[in-house]
Design goal:
It comes from Mytilus galloprovincialis. GO terms for molecular function: nucleic acid binding. This is Chromo domain-containing protein. By secondary structure, the protein is α+β, with helices and mostly antiparallel strands. 40% of the residues lie in helices and 16% in strands. The strands form 3 sheets. A 3-stranded antiparallel sheet has the order 5-6-7, covered by helices on one side. β3 and β4 form a beta hairpin. α3 packs across α4. It is rod-shaped and about 110 Å long.
Length: 251
């Protein structure tokens, strides 16, 4: 059947099994002038390519077979199909199907068996990307949680691509000394400054309130900013700028 479908091969490599050493096979090979090669007995390494393929088939069936191992014969067509379309990177660089028919197998999806060495090589990159992404997510969550615990959050991005405004609860609880119906809040002074995500925030001390809040720069009046920077410049330590050296050339 193989001869009628693919033609006679130039040589056949087989073990010393009775089915390959029979008189029928001998007569057939003599008729088609096929050279026969037999591997050494009890030395499977002499036909390592075939033995390696048998091991791959057995390992694949072992992972797919049922617990009672009664359906292995039904899995052989699917396993062989996957192996025939898998690229052999060690020898030819082509799949058995492409070597035989000159084109890739037409499939609606990819079921090829990827070599284990290639899969193992991608694991460090995948783990590195996952670790970096998780680290960035934890840092963002910690910043948001700290603002919520401190009661200093006015506008926070709770979830990615889901920004929402939150009114500070400290502003709704007035002291007994200034318990009136006025909803306007007067800023007394600015205490500190921080920068987050490219924006400036200022720590505001409100008139009649004990707790302070962090407000974005666009919510701060110009007078408070001028007063803050003037006081900061006078009381703070100025950085010394490096002075340039002038070298006078003499003739």
């Amino acid at each position: 059947m193989r001869f009628s479908r693919f033609g006679a091969p130039r040589a056949i490599v087989s073990d010393r099994g009775a089915n390959f050493c029979s008189k029928l096979i001998q007569a057939l090979c003599e008729l088609f002038e096929v050279q026969r090669y037999h591997t050494s007995s009890y030395h499977p390494t002499t036909n390592s390519t075939c033995e390696r393929m048998n091991r791959t088939i057995a390992q694949t069936l072992r992972t797919l077979v049922a617990k009672d191992q009664s359906n292995w014969h039904k899995l052989i067509p699917s396993v062989m199909m996957a192996l025939r379309m898998s690229t052999n990177t060690e020898s030819t660089g082509y799949s058995p199907f492409q070597m035989l028919f000159g084109k890739e197998m037409n499939l609606p999806f990819d079921i090829s068996v990827q070599p284990k060495d290639e899969i193992i090589g991608t694991i460090p990159d995948i783990q590195r990307n996952v670790s970096e992404n998780n680290r960035n997510r934890v840092d963002d969550i910690d910043d948001i949680q700290n603002d919520i615990i401190d009661g200093t959050q006015t506008d926070a991005q709770i979830q990615q691509n889901d920004a929402q405004m939150q009114q500070n609860g400290a502003l709704l609880q007035q002291n007994d000394e200034t318990n009136d119906d006025d909803n306007d809040f007067i800023a007394e002074k600015l205490l500190a400054k921080k920068r987050r995500q490219g924006k400036n925030y200022y720590k505001v001390k409100w008139v009649g309130y004990k707790k302070t809040t962090w407000e974005p720069e666009e919510n701060i009046g110009e007078g408070l900013l001028v007063e803050f920077y003037t006081k900061f410049t006078k009381s703070g330590t100025k950085r010394k700028r490096p002075t340039s050296l002038l070298v006078k050339q003499t003739n």
